Amino acid sequence: MAVPLITGETCVGALLFEASSHTYRPTDLRLAEEIGRRTVLLLENAKLHRRAQQAIRARDNVLRVVAHDLRNPLGTIFLEASLLAMSEGASQGMVHESTAAIQQAANLMKRLIQDLLDTERIESGRLSVDRSRIPVAAALAELVNDQAAISSSPFVELRVDVRPDVGDVFADRDRLQQVLWNLVSNAERFTPKGGMITVGAKRLEADVLFWVSDTGVGIDADAVPYLFAPFSAKKKIEQHGTGLGLPIVKGIVEAHGGNVWAESNIGEGSTFFFTMPIAPPESPRPRTPTRVKARPGKVKVKQGDVPGRQVS
Known about the structure:
Helix 2 (92-124) packs across helix 6 (245-255), helix 3 packs across helix 5 and helix 5 (173-189) runs antiparallel to helix 6 (245-255). This protein is α+β, with helices and mostly antiparallel strands. Strand 6 (195-203) and strand 7 form a beta hairpin. The chain folds into 2 domains: 1-126, Helix Hairpins; 134-277, 2-Layer Sandwich (Heat Shock Protein 90). Strands 4-6-7-9-8 form a 5-stranded mixed sheet. It has a two-stranded antiparallel sheet with strand order 1-2. Strands 3-5 form a two-stranded antiparallel ribbon. It is extended. The longest helix is centred in the N-terminal third of the chain and has 61 residues, at 26-86. The protein has helices at 26-86, 92-124, 136-146, 148-151, 173-189, 245-255, and strands at 2-7, 10-16, 132-135, 156-162, 168-171, 195-203, 207-214, 260-265, 269-277.
């Protein structure tokens, strides 16, 4: 007597009962089917438990990295503040350098904390987007200005490839910049000296396709499906930050109704793609007719009059 082990619409195996001196009856079959159902539950629970343990370990790794990354800028703040407190007759240049170091460290801490908050909002479905019409070319130009340290670096070159007819997208300006910043920063970490990063955009039928490509080391094919999963054990977050940047990218893009994916080959670099909806056509503003008083025998028409209308 055999019964299948079915989970959802998938048969994962079978239970086989064999007896040399017993004839199986319908009651035996019902008992075997119940045993099969409970066996499937045990297998599913074991699988879920294993996944949960992996997620917990990955989360603990993220928290450990965040704690380490927060300790560094916090130490910088304490050090620079101490130097300022001890140097009563410090020059204006020294004060400016210490102030800039404190501000940079505080911004890094703010970004790390913001990544954790955004991850929680995405997982709970509470990420909000404030959409407006955004010119794509202007958005990429703003990105280049913000990434001046990369584009002017002799080690990594930043290029922009924008098609002339790309137009506008209907998106949250700050969130779009966050997506682009995360992807470019991620590419910069994995691109060696002398490499190049290209940010591009072109228009599709109903979307604008963005991409960020690099000439870096590439990504192993087994790891690509897990790139956008938070707290995944497949990602080596210990070496390259918290590992929350790409999951945040995915959450923001999907909140706009877009898609995100990656293509990569070891030794040939990586390219990350995402789509954003194009902005709807702007409605022409109604033109208000202007009443004009004319002298007898003359007709005056001012801009705004409806063509063909007689003015007297």
